[in-house]
Amino acid sequence: MTMLALHRRGGETYPAREFEDVYDRLGQLMNAALGEFVEDGRMGAWMPMADISETEESYVVEIDVPGASKNQIDVQLSERELIVTGEIDEQERERRHRKMRRTGRFELRAMLPGDVDADRVDAHLCDGVLTITIPKAAAAKPRHIEVSV
């Protein structure tokens, strides 16, 4: 069993820092196990958190990319596959106490459930959330069918 070193602050024992270090190391291990690979000394792409919803007219994809600018994001649509890639630069800090927000290359791939109108896609970045509105193709929209007697 490994004992955690206890840090002292003002004469009091302070174990929280060691727990934070263990938590950070566990997070790195989980990232490696769940798909982040090291290639040529660089960390592989990570997948940002995203929600995909549907209205009668379109599919709406909201992707969390805090710290990214529009110049750092590339959005592509190939038939029904949405591909969003980019890179968020890590900001230099004089003293960093904890790092939980991701930086580096990211990639999100999502297959949309129906046909889309690729010519009318809109992408908007506001407050760290990229919102992509993808109109449905006319054939994919629900149609009212009159019932006859």
TrEMBL record:
Source superkingdom: Bacteria
Coiled-coil portions: none
Listed SUPFAM superfamilies: HSP20-like chaperones (SSF49764)
Classification via CDD domains: ACD_sHsps-like
PROSITE patterns: SHSP
Domain SHSP: 40-149
InterPro entries: A-crystallin/Hsp20_dom, HSP20-like_chaperone, Small_HSP
Signal sequence interval, chain numbering: none
Pfam families the record matches: HSP20
Similarity-based family: Belongs to the small heat shock protein (HSP20) family.
Name of the featured protein: Hsp20/alpha crystallin family protein
